[in-house]
Specification:
mainly alpha, globular, 132 residues
Length: 132
């Protein structure tokens, strides 16, 4: 067996790794937003998303509960698409602010593409729905 016949056997492990990293990122960024919705609303208003309470609350819930869903492998295709939309807005906002690819929005772009990959490929076999 050569390396190229072995690699497809690892695809579900790769999906699990992507899910774990994406879930950790969204939970780490979403939890502070959800924990203090008042400050989150002020931050969103300050960035130009009005009403800040509305958009900030939606983003907080999508990031936290989306992160948990991705972690568990639950509804990964739908949640991956929602998180990708979140990242399209974040990336677009950074570009509008004049940020460049390097030291600007490259990580946002990578997270966006990872979410799109999860939306396209699903959770893989290593997920709670597959376990049950």
């Amino acid at each position: 067996m050569n390396l190229f016949t072995l690699l497809p056997l690892l695809s579900d492990w790769a999906l699990l790794a992507v899910r774990l990293v994406i879930a950790a990122i969204f939970l780490a960024h979403g939890w502070p937003k959800l924990r203090n919705l008042k400050i989150n609303a002020q931050n969103f208003s300050g960035m130009g998303f009005k009403p800040g309470a509305f958009w900030g609350t939606i983003v907080a819930f999508v990031e936290v509960f989306g992160g948990l869903a991705i972690l568990a492998g639950f509804q990964v295709q739908i949640v991956g698409l929602l998180l990708a939309i979140d990242m399209v807005v974040a990336t677009g906002w950074k570009i509008k602010q004049g940020m460049k690819l390097v030291n600007g929005f490259e990580l946002d772009l990578m997270i966006l593409v990872s979410c799109l990959a999860l939306a396209a490929l699903g959770a893989g076999i290593y997920s709670l729905p597959n376990f049950f």
